[in-house]
Amino acid sequence: xxxxxxxxxxxxxxxxxxxxxxxxxxxxxxxxxxxxxxxxxxxxxxxxxxxxxxxxxxxxxxxxxxxxxxxxxxxxxxxxxxxxxxxxxxxxxxxxxxxxxxxxxxxxxxxxxxxxxxxxxxxxxxxxxxxxxxxxxxxxxxxxxxxxxxxxxxxxxxxxxxxxxxxxxxxxxxxxxxxxxxxxxxxxxxxxxxxxxxxxxxxxxxxxxxxxxxxxxxxxxxxxxxxxxxxxxxxxxxxxxxxxxxxxxxxxxxxxxxxxxxxxxxxxxxxxxxxxxxxxxxxxxxxxxxxxxxxxxxxxxxxxxxxxxxxxxxxxxxxxxxxxxxxxxxxxxxxxxxxxxxxxxxxxxxxxxxxxxxxxxxxxxxxxxxx
Length: 371
Ligand SMILES: Nc1ncnc2c1ncn2[C@@H]1O[C@H](COP(=O)(O)OP(=O)(O)OP(=O)(O)O)[C@@H](O)[C@H]1O
Ligand SMILES: [Mg+2]
Hints:
Helices cover 41% and strands 23% of the residues. It is of the alpha+beta class. It folds into 3 domains: 2-122, PAS domain (Beta-Lactamase, 2-Layer Sandwich); 137-199; 207-362, Heat Shock Protein 90 (2-Layer Sandwich), CATH 3.30.565.10. Helix 6 (124-170) packs antiparallel against helix 7 (173-197), helix 8 (212-224) packs across helix 9 and helix 9 packs antiparallel against helix 10 (332-342). The radius of gyration is 26 Å and the shape is elongated. The site of adenosine-5'-triphosphate has 22 residues, from helix 9 and helix 10.
């Protein structure tokens, strides 16, 4: 019976033309031959370059983009290294395209030597990076506040705490409850201020080669014995991953915060958190205001099967004090953005119900890092 139904379904479903599938894509797709002549554009590319396929096909890509465009450099790189290369945050600024920030990916067409396919994703991922850069600004204002709190709150608090302890010695049993309350609450505020102090730029932390799998193991052990008892962990590691260039304690903090959020989001029954690592060829971040490109080949991701991130929270997710939890501080992700930013990396997220993914991209140890 099932087989008959399946056959009937197959018979009635129309077959898809690859061109109509490409036409439905939101990303612009441009295929180039070995002489850099455009051979194919999809509808999104027609829109991006404000011309029809009949004009664009046969035109050299160099007519559309300035000769120093990073897109052309990527095309050359993909061709010569026969690798997929991508770059975040490329600025397109031509009369046709206007002023846009895009993520560009160039893939060699294996079947036809010299031919490459360029895809340009307007803003989406680039915007998320903008978000995490904006969160760096948010973190900066938190930095000033952390310094102020340490000075203006912590010092007087230790005085208040000491005074309460002195009073306790001579107090009645009833009053001791109150002096202890003062001490406990003072401790709680000191702990909060301490948490904020990490934002201060005073101690960026020593950096060196860090085995990210050891970091993730450490985080998983803490999680399993505490806040993530209800969660099943799945590990999906690339064992050949080279070391991250970073600070071990800070990276533990980052993944602890991400895993804690994932565990808090995961359902009480059937909650699952997947930790993955992978090596990505050719992912680079354009450094704003400079020609430099930063290579970010190490990908570490945390996936959960919770309800997803509320839509209205997304634009501000990495800002400090953004929280939906009754006892949350909203500092977790702000700290993640700050630390990953200090490492020269990128953090981004994708979220839908039962599938929320945080992706952290980090640099590896390179010659010249002193190791
Ligand atoms: N994996 C996730 N799934 C769903 N929502 C998430 C996830 N991670 C973060 N969020 C949302 O982002 C908000 C901010 O997270 P953040 O870690 O900065 O603060 P918090 O978890 O609320 O507080 P704290 O980290 O201090 O415990 C959370 O309150 C939650 O609404
Ligand atoms: Mg959190």
